[in-house]
């Protein structure tokens, strides 16, 4: 509704200050003293006295107002601390006490409470161009995960604990990269760099007592500048091929060595068995000759002949040739039984009707053979 709304009461207009515009004349803003006086009279009327705010009823009204204000102040002091949080109470801006999770109360306008989550895992990143030990430039990125271990120290030990941790991470990472070569940062030394960086960060946070616990450090990437990235990629690919070849060679070695070792052990065992066999055989022969020695001493000729016959028997038992001593003519006949047997088998397989007649003629001609000429070694006699 507009402040100056035309009314029905005699043509008088109303405004929010309770003044009427009589006779069509406009008045200025109301006096503040008059406004406060009207409010005082209204409050005095509410509490049963219309004579003014300085009376006894006005004092009672002020007391009720004070009670209501005190109740509002008391209820406004209740607050809740979450399960994962810790409350830091400040009294007139100075640390007063720590508050555990649950429902708590503080005097408003006197104490102030800072709630800090001590279970949430926070993270920050650190990256930049860094110089290695062998004077190469790398762009390194690392992520640090941490949580608050002490809420009081986290708020008051340093100006900004999160920013201080970021600076500590950057300093520790640059120091570790500066003590490492480019090859270590790109390939095989990543885990070492990560562990050394976390150790240095822990030393800095413990020194400044920031109330922060570093949970993990992740070495995300390390890459050369874009201008030489292609050459570095080729070098990394060659290094990976080298490692692959080494692994394949190791696998081949692991496959061949057990087989060769087993074969060597088998040959060794066979050699040992052969050695034992030969030695035992020699020992047996020695024992046999030792048993024959007394018999030889008693009857030398008989023992010598028996040994000779046994030896010849063993020798001739391994051949297919037969020596026959012809006592009538004094000639030594030689019968090649092996060749005769082979020829007879072959003739049976190749016999035909046309050749059977020739065989009969050969038998007829050989019925009365001419005496054979005496051999030069007819004077020798074989013994069996």
From TrEMBL:
Instruction: Please name the Pfam families in this protein's record.
Output: Band_7, HflK_N
Put simply, this protein is called: Protein HflK
Segments of skewed composition (Polar residues): 343-357
Q: Primary place of residence?
A: membrane
Question: What subcellular compartments does it reside in?
Answer: Membrane
For this UniProt record, give its keywords in alphabetical order, as a comma-separated list: Hydrolase, Membrane, Protease, Transmembrane, Transmembrane helix
Organism of origin is: Photobacterium arenosum
Any idea where the Band domain is?
A: 76-236
Bilayer topology reads: Single-pass membrane protein
Q: Is ATP-binding set as a keyword in this record?
A: no
Write one Gene Ontology MF term.
peptidase activity
CDD domains found in the cross-reference section: SPFH_HflK
Output the GO biological process annotations, alphabetical, semicolon-separated.
Answer: proteolysis
Hydrolase is among the record's keywords? yes
What function does the entry list? HflC and HflK could encode or regulate a protease.
Against InterPro entries, the record matches this protein to: Band7/mec-2_domain (IPR050710), Band_7 (IPR001107), Band_7/SPFH_dom_sf (IPR036013), HflK (IPR010201), Membrane_HflK_N (IPR020980), Stomatin_HflK_fam (IPR001972)
Q: How does it assemble?
A: HflC and HflK may interact to form a multimeric complex.
Q: Which stretches does the entry tag as region Disordered?
A: 1-31, 343-384
Q: Where on the tree of life does the source sit, at the highest rank?
A: Bacteria
Q: Which family does it belong to?
A: Belongs to the band 7/mec-2 family. HflK subfamily.
Q: Where are the transmembrane segments?
A: 59-81
